[in-house]
Amino acid sequence: MKTYNVKYRDFKTLQLYVNSNDIMKYNNILVQVFSGICNKEFINEVIRNLKLLIPQCKIVGATSSGEILNGDIFERECIISISVFEKTIIKSILVKDNISDFSKGVKIANCLISTDTKAIISFGDSSIMGEELLNGINSINDHVLVAGGIAGKSDPAYETYVFTEEGVEKNAVAAVALKGEFLNVNNGSSFNCIPIGKEHEITLVEDNIVKKIGTISVKEFYNKYLGTNNNDQILRMGNKFPLMVKRNNRYFSAHILKFINAEEALISTKLDIGEKIRIGFGDLREILQSAKEMYSEITRCPCESLLIYSCDSRKNIFKKVNAKEIIPFKDLSVGGFYTFGEFNNVNNKNMFYTETMTVLVLSEDVNARIKIISEIDDEYSYFNEEDSALYNLIKNTGEELNQLNIKLEEKIKEKTDELEKQYYTDKLTGLENRNKLINDLCVEKYTKLTIVDIRSFNDINDFYGNTIGDKVLKDISKLISCYCNENKLNSYRVNSDIFAIASSDIAKEEFIARIQFLQNEINNQCFVYEEGKIFLTIVMGVALEEELLFEKAEMALNYAKKNKELFQIYREDLNIYEGIKENIIWTKKIKDAIAENRIVPFFQPIVNNSLKTIEKCEALIRMIDENGKVISPYFFLDIAKKAGLYKELTIIMLEKTFEVLNKTNYEISINLLLQDIMNSEIRALIIKKLKKVRNPEKIVFEIVESEGIENFNEVTEFIKEVKKYGSKIAIDDFGTGYSNFNYLMKLNVDYIKIDGSIIKNVHKDKSAEIVTKTIVLFAKELGIETIAEFVSEEEIYNKIKDLNVDYSQGYYFSEPKENIG
């Protein structure tokens, strides 16, 4: 094969050239046309003449921003490159369909690539996105080398065109395939930029329009690093200081084509959000060194023809220094053109480049070599010592800073990953935690969720200690995790003794079957620790394909626990929301009553059974609603505890009861729960009030017995403290819960209030009578007085008098009233 390159003048000149070189004797001829004359009629004339002179040829061409002939650069000329082949088949196509650029690439590949296709030469007009075009070709076949580029123009007023022997078109792609068993295809490239400074991230981009680099606009970015915000200056300087991105282990550049508005810029290649860029520096010394290395590689390849497709920005640089880059070709027949973006194959991948000179090397003779007389070394005299020093300083300092920045970012990422892992991992079990579950649910990762609760796990901690409790949690988490891994389920530890199991990959029925199997396995398993056998019971609440998956699984779990079930699937007809709605309403009522001073004590008299006189009373909490109605604590006290409002109610009752105590001679008792006694703020308030009140001996603190007070030293300390002021202690609701005669001797109490559930049946239930008699006899032995609660009728009153109970309290005498007496 051989390539002939010539300037086009007219038909006769071309005819003479074709005939003198005996070109017509070849059957397989490729003609490439690089036209700096961007006139459609002119190009059509060239095509007609070529078809007349070489009817068997295949034509492919494009308008150019500059033309290359041997070792010279031209503008507004038309260069014709004629390659004749002996064993290579040529096929052309002109794609002008109104389809995407990616689809154009797909069509080219489907039409041109077959067995033994070695290369495609393709030109797109300036409307074509080169990267998308190559992506389309690569999607069909990424092994065939693609050369060429995007059509150029030397004047902004001109149009760009591409063409084949079929015609001249805009918004189109022209391409030819070279197919042959004996065809050798190689390529070389020379890049003209070095990256300097740190990496920056593309943060906002749309198609080829870059809107943000880091936190600033493209214009602000160039102003910061180049010191100008003038659009024209930025465009001019962009050739020498392009953006550089690393792809396929190689840097390539992207320069600004134009500003879309004051801040956003159209870039020559598509950049993606998250890609890292650096500023490039186009240095002549680097360009020539890169070219020298490329030429050295070319001389080692089979070569009978060279074709150059180079970037327009290089033409602008080298016109000023006498085409130094292509001088080595001055004694060879070489053709080519300056593009608005080049196609290049690097590391066996076709990619779209700018700022690059690419060379296509063709040969049908494996032994053919080309000799390049290089004068590049002589051209280094263009630089003085200061130029070389500055270049090396910029290059090496920039790389050092970038490497330092990369290492710093790696360290930051490593630490961030470590912190993220800690944030999303349960430390005890190694399972993913509640944070990770909530995050996964927010991105709708799952459609099915089970929350798993170990029933009465606190009893294990209390009985065996936290060390054994932690071992139990580790073992059960391993069991859950292994089972989930084998059954396409995901496991989490939500908190304490709560786990979660989630999935979206299996059907509802299968999900239910798998988690119920796991539940049976755990509930029927014995865990052995230090010769102690522990049996666990787990309760499951399930939500399936619901909105608010976690909340509804939790509701189902709470419903199961409340109703003593082990397994519950959320359903609308469970009316879980009704209870929640009621809680919310009552919580607001309590808050409003606190804010509006509508929490008050009512007083119920306590009668001396011997004297039949009122000596004492109990302060009982009441809420007054907006309409003046008195609300019993039955409706709001438990909700206040759950809503975290109970402490405020206790403080109000203490304040108001002590106010009344200063105005009466009655002994007044007030209820305290264990949590009141253990609360330092409330204990401090009680002591403060006892110090100031006129008659502290008239206050009785009723401690609710059902709390199991014998286990708490704080109760003993509290009793000792208040008795210093003469105050008395009563045990309330005695006879229920943790009743224990033993601790009565330790607590030094003054009264025992016998629980109403016993008293209300004492006149008709022999067991209740015996229990009451036993409590009274024991109390008398210790010098403790007894009070019967819930005395609601005369028959009960007569019975407790017969049993020697000291005092009575109940509706038989009076309901609780706002005022004493």
Descriptive tags:
37% helix, 821 residues
Which helices and strands, and how do they pair?
Elements: E1 2-7, H1 11-20, E2 28-35, H2 40-53, E3 58-63, E4 67-69, E5 72-74, E6 78-85, E7 89-95, H3 101-112, E8 117-124, H4 130-140, E9 145-150, E10 162-164, E11 167-169, E12 173-179, E13 184-191, E14 193-206, E15 209-213, H5 218-226, H6 231-238, E16 243-247, E17 250-254, E18 256-259, E19 265-267, E20 276-282, H7 284-298, E21 305-311, H8 312-318, E22 335-339, E23 342-346, E24 349-353, E25 356-363, H9 376-379, H10 385-424, E26 432-433, H11 434-442, E27 448-454, H12 457-464, H13 466-486, E28 490-495, E29 498-503, H14 508-523, E30 526-529, E31 532-535, E32 538-544, H15 549-562, E33 567-569, H16 576-595, E34 599-608, E35 613-624, E36 630-631, H17 637-642, H18 646-661, E37 667-672, H19 674-678, H20 680-692, E38 699-704, H21 713-723, E39 728-734, H22 741-747, E40 751-754, H23 756-759, H24 766-782, E41 785-788, H25 794-802, E42 807-808
Parallel strand pairs: 2-3, 8-9, 21-22, 26-28, 32-33, 35-37, 37-38, 38-39, 39-40, 40-41, 41-42
Antiparallel strand pairs: 1-6, 2-6, 3-10, 4-5, 4-22, 7-12, 8-12, 9-23, 10-11, 13-25, 14-15, 14-20, 15-19, 16-17, 16-20, 18-19, 21-25, 23-24, 27-29, 27-32, 28-29, 30-31, 34-35, 34-42, 35-36
Helix pairs in contact: 1-2, 3-4, 12-13, 18-20
